[in-house]
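Annex B. Sample input.
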Amino acid sequence: MTANSSIEITLAGNDQQNAWDAYILAHPRATHCHRFAWKTVLEQAFHIRTFYLMARESGHVVGVLPLAWQKSFLFGSFLTSLPHLNAGGALVDSDAIEDALVERAAAITQEVGASRMQLRYRGECRLALPISDHKVSAVREVSSDTEAMWKGISSNNRRKVNKATKSGMTAEAEGAAALDIFYYIYADNMRNLGTPVYARRFFDEVLHAFPESTEIVVVRLNGEPIAAAWLNGFRDGVEATWMCSLWKYLALQPNMMLYWHILRISGERGYRYFDFGRSTRDSGTHKFKQLWDTTDFPLPWANWTASGEPAADLSPANPRYQLAARLWSRLPLPIANLIGPHIVRNLP
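Annex B, continued. Sample output.
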């Protein structure tokens, strides 16, 4: 890649937030992951260094690329655009601008002594780099016509939602007031999955950064919270960034009630589509989401390494991480909640 000499690339500071957000709001491929406030969230919640690259031509913003630098004993030193999220790859006006941004990002990766960089795209990626394509988003259109949407889901799904309702299950959007409830269910769910838990502060920071577009939906059984979803809205879509259920109630399928309620309120609030969130292709979670007549949206992640060698396999298919997950799932919840945040901050 050879940078175009007419393109000026700088690191965007907080004083550039308005220019950054104005650009991404006008860009057709922007996602909520590209919003500038994620910079503050990552820095404050995880104490990691960020590099928000902004490209200009003739004084006009023509491209952006957010990066975060992480270091850990297990995974080494690496940059990601963006960690903990599903997207964040370069947004640009042209291929030449993208090449210039990626070239600068690779230079920064080497300057800080990191061994690799991952750029997370949504939909398609033109970069001539090795691509990890095992992740997808499951997306479904929604409508303000609740009755038509209800009739449009499978009879099996309708039966399960009706069964949940008759058992005393309810679902409501409870907003920021439900953070403690969400975090309790989330922490229990993640421990059982064998995955370290985020610190509660992370969710505090997200709520502070995006108060107008964040929602927490809670499913209750006879008044007791048993499942929850964290939603991030952007433009005409809303994404379930984190979903969780108490495992002792999984047989009652609270996620069926949860998904239907989210579909309904998303349509009522004027969104055009609901993103069920990231899944590993053909996994059990992915197949469950497909029961809602979803369309797969590819999440190609481009990988650059300083050595030119293939990037390490950090997917769940790696036996090394499967063993770690099994061991983690056996930890008492208080211990998992205590040490988990120190580990997860440096996970990609």
